[in-house]
Amino acid sequence: MGTPIRSRLLDYIELDRVEAEPPAGAVQACASAPASVSTPVRAGSRLLDHYAAAAGAEATPYTPPGPRPGVPAYHAPVFVPAHPRYADITDADGRPARVPFIAYELFEHRTGATRTRTVAFAFTTRDRLVAALGEAQPWVATSIGPLAEAVAGYGVTVVLDPRVTPGHHNWQPDDLAALAREAR
User: Residue 11 — φ and ψ, nearest 5°?
Assistant: First the structure.
């Protein structure tokens, strides 16, 4: 049917050199991988060098974009108001079962003089969570990126270190005791 299409992109990829240049098409084992696993190890791409040489300019190394000012890194730890919940179900054998899960607490947050939206609060320290929501507030620690992705599917955004009206706490010590009784 014709000549197969062949990409020349791999011609411009440079493999790391440990002691000697590996033969064409060879793959080096990654130092952190088990001996039975072979993983390609690349120093970078010479493709940008090729285009720069063709344009008569010197290649500049690629630097991935960093976090924007005021935006925490994807895996930054945060403390999120949440509590355990339980679903009573019937298992495949017809026996009753209790399935635990964690529910993030959502809040109405004022975005303007008259507008509000549903948000998830996240705090950069436990002390900030306690100062805003009280000592009895249940919470979980997570990363901000997965949290934002999880709630975005429901049209909810994350507010980091929100300002909350002081003195109004949703959870009191008696609420925690009732939650503990329900879990038993």
Answer: -65, -20
